[in-house]
Write a structure and sequence with these properties.
Elements: H1 2-26, H2 32-35, H3 47-56, H4 61-80, E1 95-98, E2 103-106, H5 113-123, H6 136-140, H7 153-162, E3 164-169, H8 172-185, H9 190-204, H10 210-215, H11 221-229, H12 231-235, H13 246-250, E4 259-262, H14 266-276, H15 291-304, H16 308-324
Parallel strand pairs: 2-3, 3-4
Antiparallel strand pairs: 1-2
Helix pairs in contact: 1-7, 8-15, 9-11, 11-16
The protein binds 2-acetamido-2-deoxy-beta-D-glucopyranose.
């Protein structure tokens, strides 16, 4: 009883704090008074200050690219979002916190997020200094990197004001194809297949075999898309993070992001963030050569077999990610 009351009070407090939080999110970028003047005991400038300095001086080509992406995101948000509900603590779950460096990273699964978690662990000194030496399960272990949702509203606001916030996004359909392949198609996605594949088979297949019902191992891409578009899926709760829209995980119209990194330019964008973070020597682990082109081809092949009707509806579902992050409609899509 007491515990439940305590929890409710904590929630109420968090909701009150959310109003403040929204103000924090809307503050003009680089309000210098909010950034404080010392970092690491005054020895080093914070990543946010470094970005501010970069934007004041003669801009490098890369800084200019990132300024334009921020601008485009802001503009797209004001054009395409209506009245927004306030941020709730659970909206901040995907934003990871590095207090040592002053970084906020919103992770989007299927966009190099394992490597970003590795890099953040290496940066914070909680893992080996070479990110590649950190095993993937360790990088994903809950609690190793705190989430912004774990802090009180005042603590959240302080970090939102003073830290450099970044996220990495990817062409939405390429990301979706990658999620399908990794979680539902590949033999090592057994846990996901049992959890989601069996559901999809039961719900969408007229005469499922007992084997498919038990294992969920042979879900076709078209079935996966039908599941995503099925109204019952959304009614059951938010989409799984591997296929949930990036904007629904990171709320880029309500939180201010200083750097919008892209999977398509991962190496340059990661180097840019690491430079701001004062770790230009750290090499972001690179995907194997040719991996990106292969992922793009796979997405194109998967979507080619999908009817224009489903293509259109699916584009509708992921449209905000295309608009906010400036992705053009894939050439293979038949929208009319
Ligand atoms: C948006 O995308 C177009 C087409 O790919 C590109 O020319 C333009 O530079 C992009 N704008 C920004 C701000 O990234």
């Amino acid at each position: 009883m007491t515990r439940r009351y305590g929890r409710r009070r904590a929630l109420a407090a968090a909701c009150l704090g959310a109003a403040l939080l929204l103000l924090g999110a809307l503050r003009p970028a680089f309000e210098s008074s909010a950034m404080g003047t010392s970092w690491f005991g005054g020895k080093r400038r914070s990543p946010l200050q470094t970005l501010y300095d970069l934007d004041q001086g003669p801009r490098s080509a890369l800084a200019e690219v990132h300024r334009q992406r921020r601008e485009l995101l802001r503009h797209a948000c004001s054009r395409h979002t209506r009245r927004q509900h306030l941020l709730r603590p659970e909206d901040l779950q995907h934003v990871l916190v590095d207090d040592a460096r002053g970084l906020l990273y919103c992770y989007v699964p299927k966009v190099a997020c394992t490597n970003w978690k590795r890099v953040l662990l290496a940066l914070s000194g909680r893992g080996p200094s070479d990110p590649r030496a950190i095993p993937a399960p360790e990088a994903h272990a809950p609690g190793l990197l705190p989430s912004l949702a774990d802090f009180s509203p005042a603590e959240v606001n302080r970090r939102l004001r003073a830290y450099l916030a970044f996220l990495f996004v990817r062409e939405p359909f390429e990301r979706l194809a990658s999620a399908y392949r990794n979680k539902l198609q590949r033999p090592w996605g057994a846990a996901f297949q049992r959890r989601f594949g069996t559901d999809i088979v039961r719900r969408l297949r007229p005469r499922p075999s007992p084997d498919a019902l038990a294992r969920g191992h042979d879900v076709r891409f078209a079935e996966f898309l039908a599941y995503l578009l099925d109204p019952r899926t959304r009614r059951d709760g938010p989409l799984n993070e591997h296929w949930e829209r990036a904007h629904a995980l990171c709320h880029p119209c309500r939180l201010r992001y200083d750097v919008v990194g892209k999977f398509e330019t991962l190496a340059e964008d990661a180097a840019f963030v690491l430079g701001l973070a004062g770790a230009p020597g750290l090499r972001f682990p690179e995907p194997p050569p040719g991996a990106r082109a292969a992922a793009r081809d796979r997405a194109e092949r998967l979507f080619r077999d999908i009817s224009p009707f489903y293509q259109r509806r699916l584009f509708g579902l992921y449209k905000m990610d295309f608009l906010l992050f400036n992705y053009s409609v894939p050439s293979y899509l038949r929208l009319r």
